[in-house]
């Protein structure tokens, strides 16, 4: 059983790394962003409610997210542990997650913070959007420079305060997210292997 949190600003590569970890360790990746986007594409009433919040780059209310993730974690595919991608994003979410895990006799084993500077994030977004448009694919409603700037502000003000929370609990590991995808993956694996061996 191993529970991991991937932290970092939008576009830092959390989703990519979470998918790699899912393959390597056989534990489930849970992305709250993907779960919300699935609700939107299925056209559920819940999806309709959250769409405008997501398009503006603001956060969906804590209670809604906590309830959604608590329900999801009950499923069998989470039995070996979870890689959290995009959750928790606020201190109340981090506290709620601790409580949920404690009640199951589990805990967070490691928090990996991917650090990438903001100009690089804007550059990554613009190239991704151009590539998607060139392939004729749909671009996410929140994938534009204005919304990204707001998502970065939201990250700094609402999400970054959870970093000291995990630092205090000696769980935090910083990884340079500017490195190549495979280098980042190797570094995360080294951290986790040390944790698993301890
Ligand atoms: P992401 O795909 O993780 O970048 O999430 C896209 C959007 O979904 C965010 O900008 C938020 O509007 C919403 N969202 C995803 N995860 C959370 C969360 N843990 N708490 C609040 N809002 C979230």
Keywords for this structure?
198 residues, Rossmann fold, alpha/beta, 5-stranded parallel β-sheet, binds adenosine monophosphate, 9 helices
Shape: globular
Rounded average pLDDT: 95
CATH topology category name: Rossmann fold
Q: How many domain regions?
A: 1
Helix share bin: 55-70%
Number of strands: 5
Structural class: alpha/beta
**CATH C-level label:** Alpha Beta
Characterization of the model:
The chain is globular, with a radius of gyration of 16 Å. It has 9 helices and 5 strands, in the order βαβαααβαβαααβα. It has helices spanning 14-25, 32-42, 45-56, 62-73, 91-103, 118-134, 145-159, 162-168, 181-197; strands spanning 4-7, 28-31, 82-85, 110-115, 172-176. The chain is α/β, with parallel strands linked by helices. A 5-stranded parallel sheet has the order 2-3-1-4-5, sandwiched between helices. The model has no long low-confidence stretch (mean pLDDT 95). It has one domain (4-197): Rossmann fold, CATH 3.40.50.300. It starts with a strand and ends with a helix. The chain binds adenosine monophosphate. The site of adenosine monophosphate has 17 residues, from helix 2 and helix 3.
């Amino acid at each position: 059983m191993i529970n991991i949190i991937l932290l970092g600003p939008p576009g830092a590569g959390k989703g990519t790394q979470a998918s790699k970890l899912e393959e390597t360790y056989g534990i489930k990746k849970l992305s709250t962003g993907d779960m919300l986007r699935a609700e939107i594409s299925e056209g559920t009433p819940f999806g309709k409610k959250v769409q405008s919040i997501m398009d503006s780059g603001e956060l969906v209310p804590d209670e809604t997210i906590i309830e959604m993730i608590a329900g999801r974690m009950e499923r069998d595919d989470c039995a070996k542990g979870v890689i959290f991608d995009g959750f928790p994003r606020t201190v109340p979410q981090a506290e709620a997650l601790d409580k949920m895990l404690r009640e199951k006799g589990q805990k967070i084993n490691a928090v990996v913070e991917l650090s990438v500077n903001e100009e690089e994030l804007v550059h990554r977004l613009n190239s991704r959007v151009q590539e998607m448009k060139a392939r004729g694919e749909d671009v996410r409603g929140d994938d534009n420079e204005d919304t990204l700037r707001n998502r970065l502000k939201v990250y700094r003000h609402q999400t970054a305060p959870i970093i000291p929370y995990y630092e205090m609990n000696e769980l935090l590991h910083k990884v340079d997210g500017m490195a190549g995808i495979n280098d980042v993956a190797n570094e995360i694996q080294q951290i986790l292997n040390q944790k698993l061996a301890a």
